[in-house]
Amino acid sequence: MKTLALLQQPPVIRKTPGQFYTDVLKGLSADNKYLDSKYFYDAAGDKLFQDIMRCPEYYLTGCELEILEQQSRDIALTLCALCSTFDVVELGAGDASKTSILLKQILDMGLDYTYFPIDISGSMIGYLEKTLPRQLPGLKVHGLNGEYIEMLKASASLTAKKRAVLFMGASIGNVPPQEAAVFLKKIREQLRPGDILITGFDLKKDPATILAAYNDAAGITREFNLNLLRRINRELGANFDTTKFEHYPIYDPGTGSCKSYLISTQEQEVHLEDACIHFAKDEAIYMEISQKYSLADIDRLAREAGFRSVRQFTDRRDWFVDAMWQS
Ligand code: AVI
């Protein structure tokens, strides 16, 4: 009987901890606690980010939209002058709503090209492959689902043409500034001589305007940060009580670093599988950096990453720039 009972027991399967768990545990076990902002974007986080982009204080989206609406023809003409014929690759394409303005402009100029959107979200890639050719007749779309550098490499084997790589929306700001040149160099290593990179940078400006963008009155950015604690609860079975954490963004006009923290409002313990994480009252979790740059910083970054700076397309207030570099 005993043997049979043992035989009938399901085998104990030890689940190897996933990368999300490993990263969260590492960050919350550090002396200065931190979480990686790339984990903001689960389905709820994606939705909250869409809401942030509609917040009146979050000027970044409107600025880049203005650049694309007003200067797409200029951007496309500059690309044609540099490359004559090229394909377009986009890192972190999302729903491509802003980029479609530039894509349309390039089509209207009679260029036959393929758009390779790269995104970590497979459903987003499926959506783009389905909807974009309907919105922009004549556009060829070949989606690449995965990590930026790996997929950029894959795009090289899919085209012999020059590539214009787009990295829009100030996503570079979420890379710590001391790592930005290395990250951009990794992109350049996947390009051929003459290929183009267009990167969106949020520019240094009135500190109050910047801080308000990360501390909107409706509290959506606060929810965006707290959602990562909720995600850890949902996916890793932790027991964060989000009412015991406060959103605390800061902007340092000296360095251009805008950082977000969650502050524990009381001494507390949070359980994450076998681990017990202790928070002192007022202890911080560093959540995200959104680095702001000057035009001179950006030219310096281009040189450090091995690019030649071609042109800087700014909005009318000089709050945002899409910087065009050549490999
Ligand atoms: C995606 N990224 C450019 C945004 C930013 O401005 O740093 C993410 C964000 N975080 C809070 N609000 C928006």
TrEMBL record:
Enzyme class: transferase
Gene Ontology biological-process entries: methylation
Its EC number(s): 2.1.1.44
Source organism, top-level taxon: Bacteria
Residue stretches making up the Histidine-specific methyltransferase SAM-dependent domain: 21-326
One term of GO molecular function: L-histidine N(alpha)-methyltransferase activity
Database matches in InterPro entries: EgtD, EgtD_Methyltrsf_superfamily, MeTrfase_dom, MeTrfase_EgtD-like, SAM-dependent_MTases_sf
Keyword annotations from UniProtKB, A to Z: Methyltransferase, Transferase
PANTHER family: ERGOTHIONEINE BIOSYNTHESIS PROTEIN 1
UniProt name for this protein: L-histidine N(Alpha)-methyltransferase
